[in-house]
Amino acid sequence: MLEAVKTQQTPVIEGAPRSARADVQLDARLAAAPAPMTGVTAPARADALARLKEQGLPGPRHEYWRYTDPAPFNAARPAPVALEAVAGDPKLFADVDKLRLVFVDGRFDAAASDDPALAGVEITTLAQADAQPGHWVAEAYGVLEAQGQKPVRRAFAALNTAVATDGAVIRVTGKADRPVQILYRPSDAGADVIVHHVLRLEEGAELTLLENGLLGARGNVVIEADLAPGAKLHHIAAPRAGVARIATTHLFARVAEAASLKSFELSVDGRHMRSESVVELAGDDAVAHVAAAVLGDGDNLRHDDTVFITHGALRGESRQVFKKVLKNGATGVFQGKILVRPGAQKTDGYQISQALLLDEDSQFLAKPELEIYADDVKCSHGSTTGALDETALFYLRSRGVPRERAIVLLVLSFLADALEEVEDEDLRAEIAGRLEDWLTAKAQG
Amino acid sequence: MLEIKNLHVQLEEEGKQILKGVTLTVPAGEVHAIMGPNGSGKSTTSYVLSGREGYEVTEGSATLDGRDLLEMEPEERAAAGLFLAFQYPVEIPGVGNMTFLRTAVNAQRKARGEEELSAGDFLKLVREKAKALDIDAEMLKRPVNVGFSGGEKKRNEILQMAMLEPRMCILDETDSGLDVDAMRLVAEGVNALRSPERSFLVITHYQRLLDHIVPDVVHIMHDGRIVKSGGPELALEVERNGYGDILAEAADA
Question: Is the CB of B75 less than 8 angstroms away from the CB of A391?
Fold first, then answer.
C-alpha cells in the first residue's frame, strides 16, 4: 500500500506578497516583545531579527499557512486567560524519576527546579549563558533555526530566536542516567511565553528530554538540537499547549553520522497549535523518527503538524508517524515533507499520517510531499482518514464492553503505532496510561 | 432458555428480507445446530440475536430467559448471558488480549452488580483456562487476534467464552478455516463448557464439526426459515445427500 516511490519537483517556497498592514503588524509584535541586544547571543539575535524583517509575518496565502490561520500567532499580544482554571502541574511524568527544570512564564525558576547536576550533562540557562563571555551557546544559538528557514520560511522561529530571553542550555557529554524534564508553569494571565532551548549532544552522548506543562496565554517554543556522531536524543513533548492552548513549537535538529533522534509529541488539549519539526540527516547512517498522537475535540480547534526532513547523507533512515483523533468539529493538519538530496543514496524514508474522525463535523487536511534527487532510495508515504471500525466496535460490545469504553479502546488502538515510537517501555506505559485516563474522563463527560 | 418466535428481519439499507419467520427454542443444557446452504440466513440469525447494527426486525421476538433480547444494546445482551463466537474474529492492534479480556469480564460483572475480579484472581483464572485451550502466555500478551492463525483466533474465541461463562453460546461457523486438529481442540473447549445451565446454538455449513460437538437437535435453515428439525442423524443425512433432498421434501410439504 505504501511502497510508492515518487519523484517530483516543487518550487522554492516564497512568502506571499508583503503588505503594508503586515509590516505594521510585525512592528507591533516586536514592540510587545523587544529583542535584548546584549550578551553573547546578540549577533545571532540581530541576524534573526533581520531574517524576520525580511520575510515578515505570514499571511493565509503563504504556501505553508493555507490550512492554519496564522492570525492568533501574529497578534501583538494574546488575550489574557483565566489562570484559576489551571489546577497544578499535569500528572504526566510526575512519578517518573527525572531531573526537573521549571520555567514559570518562560523564565527559569531555580528554586522550583532540581539541582541541575547530572553526570555527563551540563545544564545552564539561556539567560546565564548569555552573560558568560565565550560560552559555546554563542556559536550554536540560532544556527539550526537559520538553516531551517530554507526553503520554507518559519517566521515564528526567527521571532523566537530574536527575542527569547530564557530557556535551557544543555550539553551532554555522556549517557544521562535519567531524563531531564522541562516543566512549564504559568503565573501571569497575559504571559506571552517565548522560550528557546539549545541542546548539544557530544559524540556518543545520550539524553531523554521530557517537555510538558502549561505555557502562558500564548506559547512559542524553539528547540535547537545538534547531535554529534553516535549521539542519541529521545524527545517527548506532551501537552505544552498551555492555558490558552495557542502555541507554535519548532524542533530544529541536525543529526550527524550514526546519531539518532526520536521525537514524540502528545497533544490532548490544543486549540490552535502549530508544531514544526525540521530535521537534517547530515551524516551517514543517521536516524530520525518523528511521531505524534493528537486528540482534538471541539469547534475552532486546529492542530497542525508541519514536518521537513532532509536526507543529506548515505543510508539515512527517517520515519514520520502522525495520528490524530478528531471530533466535534476539530481540524487536523499534517504537512510532511521528505527531501532527499543528490547523493543521499540508500535513503529509507517513511511517512504515514492518519486521522480517525469520530463524527462527520471534523476534518483532516494532509499534504504529504516527497522531493527526491537520488536514484537509489526507498521512500514511501501514506495518508488515511477514516471513521471508527463498526465491526470492531460491535466485537467489543458483544463481549460486554460498554460503547463508551469500547470507543476508548479503539482510539488507543488507533494511536498505538505512534506510541510505539516511544522507545522506553516505562515512558510509553506512562503516556498510554495518562492518555487512557484522559479519554475515559472525556467519555464520561 | 432461548426462544425465537416468528422472527422477520430485513437489511436496514436495502430493505431486503433475510429472515422470514424463524421459530426456534433452545432449552437449558441443550446443544442445537443450525445447518443450511449459503445465504439461508444462518449468520444473520446470530447477528440479530447479538445486536449487530444494520438489521431491522419487522416482526417476531427473541428472548433469553424470558428477557427481550431485541430491546437491549449488544453489551447488555452479553451481560444477560449471550455470547457470539465470531466466524471472523476481529483484530484489534494495540489492545492487549489480557486487557481486553479483563475489561470484558469486569464490565459484565459490573453490569450484573457483581464485584470486579482483582488483577491477581483474574490472572489465575485466565492462566488456568488458557492452558486447557493450549494458549500460551505469549498469545495472551499479544494484541487481540493480531498475527493469530485461524486456529488461534478460534481458540481465543473459546477462551473468551470460558472466561465470560455465558448462559447461551452461539457459534457462528466456528469450524471455518480450521484443520482437523484445530477443530478438535476448539470442540474440546466447547464440550468442556457444556453444562445443564448452559445452552449452545452451533451454526455450521458442514456436518464435520457436529462429529465433535454432538447436538441434541439439528435444524435445517433455508431461505430465512427453519424447514426441518431432527436429531443428530439429520446432519449425517446432509453429509451424505447434500441439502437437495431435504429442501425438495420441505417444498413438497
Answer: no
Instruction: Report CB contact under 8 Å: A394, B52.
Output: yes
Render pLDDT for A271-328 as a digit per residue (tens, 0 to 9): 899 999 999 999 999 999 999 999 988 878 899 999 999 999 999 999 999 999 999 9
The pLDDT of residue A2: 39
Q: In whole numbers, what is the pLDDT of chain A averaged over residues?
A: 91
B166 — contact with chain A (CB < 8 Å)? no
A195 part of a folded domain: yes
CB contact under 8 A, B92 and A403: no
Mean pLDDT for A233-246 is: 76
Cross-chain CB nearest to B86 (options A390, A395, A410): A395
Q: Given CB atoms, is B117 within the 8 Å cutoff of chain A?
A: no
- The answer to whether residue A235 sits within a structural domain is yes
Walk along chain B (253 residues) and give the pLDDT tens digit of each residue: 999 999 999 998 888 999 999 999 999 999 999 999 888 999 999 999 999 999 999 999 999 999 999 999 999 999 999 999 999 999 999 899 999 999 999 999 999 899 999 999 999 999 999 988 888 888 898 999 999 988 899 999 999 999 999 999 999 998 888 888 888 888 998 999 999 999 999 999 888 889 899 999 999 999 999 999 999 999 988 888 888 888 888 777 6
In a domain, A155, yes or no: yes
Q: Are the beta carbons of A251 and A281 closer than 8 angstroms?
A: no
Kindly identify which residue of chain A lies nearest to residue B46, measuring between CA atoms: A398
A13, A64 in Cβ contact below 8 A? Answer: yes
Nearest to B75 among A397, A409, A410 (CB): A397
**Residue B201 is part of which domain span?**
2-252
Q: Does A399 touch chain B (CB under 8 A)?
A: yes
| Min Cα separation B18/chain A (Å) | 20
Looking up residue B119, the CATH number of its domain turns out to be 3.40.50.300
- Segments forming the whole domain that contains residue A104: 20-388
CB within 8 Å of B244: residues ≥ 6 apart: none
| Chain B interface disruption, residue of A356, A399, A415, A422, most B CBs within 10 A | A399
B74/A398 CB distance under 8 A: yes
Residue A401 is nearest to which of B75, B86, B94, comparing CB atoms? B75
Let me know the angle formed at the C-alpha of B185 by B179 and B189, rounded to the nearest 5 degrees: 140
Which among A47, A56, A48 has a CA at the least distance from the CA of A25?
A56
For residues B166 and B158, give the distance between their C-alpha atoms in angstroms, rounded to a whole number. Answer: 11
Residues 6+ apart with CB under 8 A from A317: A286, A287, A288, A347, A348, A349
Structure-model confidence comparison of residues A22 and A158, the more confident one? A158
A360 touches chain B (CB under 8 A): no
Q: Return the residue of B nearest to A391 by Cα.
A: B90
Confidence of residue A373 (pLDDT cuts 50, 70, 90): very high
Interface list for A 400-429 with B (CB within 8 A): 400-403, 405-406, 409-410, 412-417, 419
* Domain tally, chain B: 1
Is residue A418 in a domain?
no
CB A259 within 8 A of CB A282: no
Find chain A residues with C-beta within 8 A of B104's C-beta: 396, 399-401
C-alpha cell belonging to residue A59: 499571511
The share of chain A scoring above pLDDT 70, in percent, equals 93
Backbone dihedral region for residue B21 (phi beyond 0: left; psi -120 to 50: alpha; all else: beta)? left
What count of other Cβ atoms lies within 10 Å of the Cβ of residue A9? Answer: 7
Q: How far apart are CA A311 and CA A287, in angstroms?
A: 10
At A23-48, the pLDDT tens digits run 888 889 888 888 777 899 999 999 99
Count of domains for chain A: 1
State the nearest Cα–Cα gap between A394 and chain B, in angstroms.
6
